[in-house]
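Example A, followed by Example B.
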Amino acid sequence: MATDTTQPQRDNLGSALLDVARLTSNPDESAGIQLSDLKNSATSEVRRFGEDLASHLLAHTQIKVPPAFQLQSAAEGKIQVVGDHPNKATIEAYLNENTRLLKWFKELEVLFEIQRKLELGPDNNDMATQVFNFGLTSLGGIAFFTLKTNPSH
């Protein structure tokens, strides 16, 4: 079932972060959530963010996907499009001026970094060499990690 992107979608953001707060604030494991629950919430957040982002880009900038693009955090709390994309500058300008989408992206980044750290375990330092990415494709959003290419990032 295709998502209608003719009108911008508005969604409640950050619900998965509430799950993380419950996970980390309650020492009683039986009352907290499991990692599998966190993954399910994170997956749902990616889907919702992707749908919302696609609908807003279409409505406000007339940018359609494909072609797909990849986002990462940039300096000064901004978002950058990684690689070549015909609408790179427009996407970056729109996202960095839209505080709601910018905040939501940052919340996704934190959520997935927490999830990744939990998956790797407390003794694993691989997170220092990885960076969160969000990709938007014609099939929807995807979250993944890549190796850092810029040591200052």
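Example B, a separate protein, is given below in the same form.
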Amino acid sequence: MGQSTHRLWLVRCLLTLLWSVPLPFLGAIAQTMPPATPQMSLGSLSTLQTAEQFIDALFGNDFQRAWIYLNPILQEEITPQGLQQRQQVFLKRVGAYQNRVDAELDGNIVSIKVAFSNITDTLILIFDENGKITGVDFPANPNSLSIQSPR
């Protein structure tokens, strides 16, 4: 098993075990979420293309466009300004965004290897059946990036 395939397998196992536990940064939505309401026509974009466009929008400082890719439940929890705040905190830790290096799709999970000035890391995006993002894991320092509501 290649290193990349092994990493995706480990991520899938962890996500399966932790599905009911909120994920860092944007969190995860339960599998029983309602269908997404269309707010932007994603047309025939593949999940991989959607993930890449989300990353491009987020790190291209187009927070309104990045927000549109989120599942409506996440959109209720975080505003485009909230995305901007979290992106800025994240970039302080990893350095300036450089570029997307690689992306892999495994079911509803997309792993995107991204280069920053201080680190190259793999960001994990989770999608619902409607092609909307239900969770994002930015592993550099997830604890300070959580948007989970205090309960």
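On Example B: The first strand starts at residue 97 and ends at 106.
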